[in-house]
Amino acid sequence: MAKELIETKLLGTLTYDTEEGLAMDKRDATFQLGGQDITIDLDMHEGITLLEDYQSIAMLVEQFPKLYAEAKTYLLAQMAEENGTIEYYFEFHLEELTEETLAHLKVDSVDQVTNQLLIENLILSGAWFSLDKNNGLELTFDFKLVPEFSDELLVVRFDRTGKILYVSHES
């Protein structure tokens, strides 16, 4: 088993096993985001073996706060353009989990819900690194609207430079 150490300021030293990957639970991945302490699950899939990938991982981890803000800005812009994936994600929560969702959003009715409010209330629950089908490094942010009541994810995927590739809805 090859162990690699990836040094980050944001999360400290990450010990990565090239055969088994890395999984840090929420206790281990806590940092400041938007003036608040947030905790996420952080995973790195097995098979990442290139030095340039480790360097990209370290760089991307340091950029989590910036990438988080960019992801939310991107999602809000995509909502304005009526992105069907994002619309479906929020429709699911507003139709299927109305009472819980409204309570989470701190509003009394669906009429008070705005796109801005929905995006602001997305919670970053996880971040993970993996290789795509061409062995290119990708970073994925998993967002949840109401984690206590739904495992549905709004996923934002980045390339190794931090450029947003696409958004998907997963469960």
SSE class: alpha+beta
Tell me the fraction of residues in β-strands, as a range: 25-35%
Average residue pLDDT: 90
| Largest sheet composition | 6 strands, mixed
Q: Report strand order across the widest sheet.
A: 3-6-7-8-9-10
Percent helix, as a range, is 25-40%
The tally of domains stands at: 1
Low-confidence stretches: none
Q: How large is the count of helical segments?
A: 5
Shape: elongated
How many distinct beta strands?
Answer: 10
Q: State Rg.
A: 17 Å
Order of helices and strands: EEEEEEHHHHHEEEE
In whole angstroms, how far apart are the ends? 32 Å
Protein name: DUF2004 domain-containing protein
Organism: Isobaculum melis
Describe this structure in words.
The protein has helices at residues 51-62, 64-80, 84-96, 98-105, 115-120; strands at 3-8, 12-17, 22-24, 30-33, 36-39, 41-44, 123-131, 137-144, 153-159, 164-170. With 171 residues, the protein is α+β, with helices and mostly antiparallel strands. The protein has one domain (3-170). Helix 3 (84-96) packs across helix 4 (98-105). It starts with a strand and ends with a strand.
Topology:
Blueprint: E1 3-8, E2 12-17, E3 22-24, E4 30-33, E5 36-39, E6 41-44, H1 51-62, H2 64-80, H3 84-96, H4 98-105, H5 115-120, E7 123-131, E8 137-144, E9 153-159, E10 164-170
Parallel strand pairs: 6-7
Antiparallel strand pairs: 1-2, 3-6, 4-5, 7-8, 8-9, 9-10
Helix pairs in contact: 3-4
